[in-house]
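Troubleshooting entry. The earlier prediction with heme C gave an output that would not parse, so I re-checked the input for stray whitespace and re-submitted. Clean input:
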Amino acid sequence: MAKLLLLALLVTGLGLLLNSTDKSAKLVPVKDKVELGKLLFFDKQLSLDSSISCASCHIPEFAFSDTTALSKGVGGKLGLRNAPSVMNVKFRDRFFYDGRAKNIEDQVHFPVEDPLEMNLAFDEAVKRIASDPIYMEAFKRLYGEAPNRVNVANAIAEFERSLESSNTPYDDFMNEKPSTFSESAKRGMDVFLSDKAKCFDCHFSPDFTGDEFKNIGLYNGLDWNDPGRFKITGDSADLGKFKVPGLRNVGVTGPYMHNGRFKTLMEVIDYYDTPDKFVPNAINRDSTLSKPLNLTTQEKTDLLNFLLSLTDKSLKQR
Ligand code: HEC
Ligand code: HEC
């Protein structure tokens, strides 16, 4: 009897170990590059004092975004921008709000080395990874070589590229499948596409971004003082321009904008309706937003319901 009980305990214990995402508990070999990247994404060794991982700021339940305006890095240091979703990044050709990274691989070393984020030299991170027999075995098998700057970045990028989402009420409706896309969301889609609201001028393509840099009026050089794209190009025409974010899962990724200053989607909609009320003296604001949109209360609610219909069904609406 006692032996049976012991056996049962061992079996459940083993089951737990096998299901765990914790690398130290890994008994089966890492399956592929995506799974390897996932282990790295959740691995706190990539930060100076091993206190945070990529997933600390890019939380899976919130479409891999953070729930606070600004995220805390190593030692509780506050960052400068809002942590966006890392889902639906496969087709992006620029990364970060100012576009300083050209592709996903190039993006990876920035958070690791950023003194306000993980604060660890990327070579040191690679050394830590290489000193771990589980990683060493996996890299040798999947890449034919030991971990290095290039393959570590590639593994994390492969994981990020796997995070595509299109299982939403909106997609069901577009594919003529039964869906919960409401009448209000349908009207909201028309508002989104209309000349009145002009959302589609900037938020187009299947992920609702044209991957361009635009100034929507969130820069006045005073209390709104992140110059955005200008920091990278030094071109005054780029002052206050930010990468147009995709809008998939936007229902769970608040707070919003590069600085997380808008808490809710309704606040975002109110902003577009009357930008001057929120940010007076904006510098260089895009001409599409030069006049108030004059949206009705109904149009605003419909627009909100449309945006909410872009949430993947695997995520809980907040
Ligand atoms: C301390 C919080 C924090 C940690 C840790 C962190 N990030 Fe981020 N991440 C951010 C912030 C903030 C931004 C936006 C920065 C900007 O645009 O200048 C960002 C932006 C990104 C983007 C750009 C998304 C886009 O659409 O342009 C990707 C991809 C990303 N992070 C992946 C990662 C990966 C991979 C790791 C781990 C190696 C990581 N992050 C660790 C806070 C964090
Ligand atoms: C001129 C281009 C432009 C137009 C028009 C535009 N947007 Fe945006 N949108 C942007 C840019 C750029 C950002 C990012 C700004 C920032 O972070 O500072 C943004 C951010 C957002 C965000 C926040 C996303 C996030 O993850 O923080 C939402 C939601 C949004 N827009 C919805 C809309 C809606 C709805 C409309 C129409 C009423 C619209 N946009 C019109 C360019 C535009």
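This one parsed fine. The pocket of heme C (ligand 2) is lined by residues 84, 97, 197-199, 201-203, 214, 216, 218, 242, 244-245, 247, 250, 253, 256-258, 265, 268-269, 272, 286, 288-289, 303 (CB under 6 Å).
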